[in-house]
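Input.
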Amino acid sequence: METAEKTSPESPQASPARSQNNPPICIEPDLDFIRNVARQGGETLKKCIQCGTCSATCELSPDQNPFPRKEMAWAVWGMKGRLLTDPDLWLCHQCNDCSVRCPRGARPGDVLGAIRQECIANYAVPRFLGRWVSEPQCIPLLLGIPIALLTLAMLVKDPVERLLGFSQPGGEGARLSERIVYSYSHMLPHWLLNSFFLFFSFLTLLAVVAGVARFWGAMKAADSQSPNAAGVKGLLPSLIAVLGSIFTHEKFDNCTKARSRLWSHMCVFFGFGALCVVTLWVITAQINPLIRDDFIYPFSLWSPWKVLANAGGLALLVGTLWMAFDRVINTEQNTAGAGRYADWALLVTLLTVVITGFASELLHYVRLEPHRHIAYFTHLVFVFALLIYLPYSKLAHFVYRTAALVYAERTGRNDTKRPAPAAAEKSVEQEEAHHAARDI
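Output.
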C-alpha cells in the first residue's frame, strides 16, 4: 500500500528528515504484531478513529510529539519497528484517563500496555524467555524450572558441605533445633540460599543490562535525525531527575480519573523496596561493615529488620489487593480495565510471595512440622520465579520505563509542556458534550 506522508507530528511518518520533502512511503503492516498486541490486551485497537481525544486529555503528553494518538495510528498499521523504538511508549503510565474519555472505547492505555509487553519480549535476552513469560500455556514450565533448581540445590547440599569441610555432626537441623532462633529449613541453609540466589541474581542482572542496552541503542538509532539526539542534558542529571520523579510518583499524581492507582502503586513500590533492603542486608551479612555483632538469622520477631520486612510485606499485600480490586470489582469507572495476562501474572506472583512468606514465618515460630518446610519451599519457588523472570515479565516495566524516561529527559523530549491543562480538560468536556448531543 502506498500513501502520501503527512507533515503532522501525529502521522506515522518514517522520520522528520523525510517529512520535509513529503515523498510517498510504503507501509508493510506486520500482521503478526497486530495479532500479538490484540492477544496481549489491545483488542480494542481498531476502534480508534484518530479523533485526538487521548492526546488532548493526557496530562503527561507534551506539546511536541504528543502521545498516544500517533502510537495508536502506528499500531493500527502494524508499524512494529516504529513502535518498538519509540520512547513515548514508556512515558505513558497507563493511568487510563485517555481510555475512560475515549468516545469509541478504544482504550489507548491498554493498547500501549500491550505494546510495551511486546517491546519487552522483543529486546529480551534470551528472547525465547520473553515469549515463554508472555504465554499462559507456559506456566507449568516456568514454575517447573525453579522447582527443579531448588530441588537440585537441596540434593547437592550435603556433598558440598563435606567438600568444603563445614558439615556439622548430626546435621544443621539437629544443631539448631533447640535454639530460640533456628533455621527455617535445614535442607535449605542460609549459605546455600545465599550462593544460589546470588548466582541467579547475577544472571538476571546481565539479562536486564543486555535488554536495556538493546532498547537504548534502538531509540538512539531511530532518533538519529533529531537535533537533540546527542543530548541536551547530561546522563547523570537526567537519571537523578527521573529517580526523583519515580520516588515521588509525581506522574501518577497527575491522573484525574484513576487517582487511587497512585496509592496502590506506592504501596507496592515501597513495600517491595523494603523487602529488597532487608534481603540485601541478609545476603551481605558476612561482608557488611555495619554489622558488628554476631549475625543471627532468622531475625527475632522484634528485630528492626524483621519489623521492616513485615511492614514491607503488609504494604505489598495491600497494594496488590488494591490493584486486583480495581481490576475486578471497581468497574463503575472502568479506569484500570480488566487487566492483561501480564498484569495478572505479576499480581498473582506477588500475592503468592507475600502470603507464603507470612505463612512460613508464622509456621516457623509455632514450629509446626512439616508444614513450615512446605510453605518455605513454596515461598522460595515464587521468589525465585519473580527474580529470574524479572527481565521478561511486567516487572521489567520498571527498568525499561526508567531507561525511556532518562532518554526523554536527556534529549529534551519533555521540555515543552502544555501550559494550561485546565483548557485541555475543558476541550474534552466539550467533546463529550458534542458526542452526547449527537447521540441524542
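Residues 1-19, 169-181, 416-440 have pLDDT under 50 and may be disordered.
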